[in-house]
C-alpha cells in the first residue's frame, strides 16, 4: 500500500512540474498534464474616441491602440482585444486584461 501511495504522489508531482526546454530563458511556463502554456505580457496605451482604428508598436512589449469605440459597457476593451488578436495573429480567447480594465494604460497577458 505504501508503494502505491509513493507512485501516485510521484506521478502527481511530475504532472504539475514546471518546465519547457524549448522556451527562451526566463519565459514563465506552466505544464499541466502534457499541455505547456507560455505567457507574454504587454503594456497597452489606449487612445479612445479616435476617427481611426489601429495598433501602433512602440517597442517589443508596448503598443498604442486607437479605437473608435467609447469606454461604455466594456465596448472599448472588447475592441482592443479584437484588434490586438488580429495584429498578433492569436485568438481572442488567448488574450486577457490583467490590470487596467478601467484605465487607459493596461497590462495584457497573452497565452500561446
List keywords for this structure.
6-stranded mixed sheet, globular, single chain, Conserved Hypothetical Protein Mth637, Chain: A, alpha+beta
Write up this protein:
Mean pLDDT is 76; it is low at 1-18. The chain has one domain (2-111): Conserved Hypothetical Protein Mth637, Chain: A. Strand 1 (29-32) and strand 2 form a beta hairpin. Helix content is 25%, strand content 34%. The protein has 112 residues and is α+β, with helices and mostly antiparallel strands. Strands 1, 2, 3, 4, 5 and 6 form a six-stranded mixed β-sheet that branches.
**Structure classification:** alpha+beta
Mean pLDDT: 76
Q: Measured on Cα atoms, how large is the radius of gyration?
A: 19 Å
Helical region count?
A: 2
What is the helix/strand order? HEEEEHEE
Q: What global shape is seen? A: globular
Number of domains: 1
Q: In the CATH hierarchy, what is the class?
A: Alpha Beta
| Main sheet: strands, sense, barrel | 6 strands, mixed
Topology-level CATH name: Conserved Hypothetical Protein Mth637, Chain: A
Number of strand elements = 6
Please tell me the CATH architecture by its name.
Answer: 2-Layer Sandwich
Portion in strands? 25-35%
Helix content range: 25-40%
Unreliable parts: 1-18
Distance between the termini: 41 Å
Amino acid at each position: 500500500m505504501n508503494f502505491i501511495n509513493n507512485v501516485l504522489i510521484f506521478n502527481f508531482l511530475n504532472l504539475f512540474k514546471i518546465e519547457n526546454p524549448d522556451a527562451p530563458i526566463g519565459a514563465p511556463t506552466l505544464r499541466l498534464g502534457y499541455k505547456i502554456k507560455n505567457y507574454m505580457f504587454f503594456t497597452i496605451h489606449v487612445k479612445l474616441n479616435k476617427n481611426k482604428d489601429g495598433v501602433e508598436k512602440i517597442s517589443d512589449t508596448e503598443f498604442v491602440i486607437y479605437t473608435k469605440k467609447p469606454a461604455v459597457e466594456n465596448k472599448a476593451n472588447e475592441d482592443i482585444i479584437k484588434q490586438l488578436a488580429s495584429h498578433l495573429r492569436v485568438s481572442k480567447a488567448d488574450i486577457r486584461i490583467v490590470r487596467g480594465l478601467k484605465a487607459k494604460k493596461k497590462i495584457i497577458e497573452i497565452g500561446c
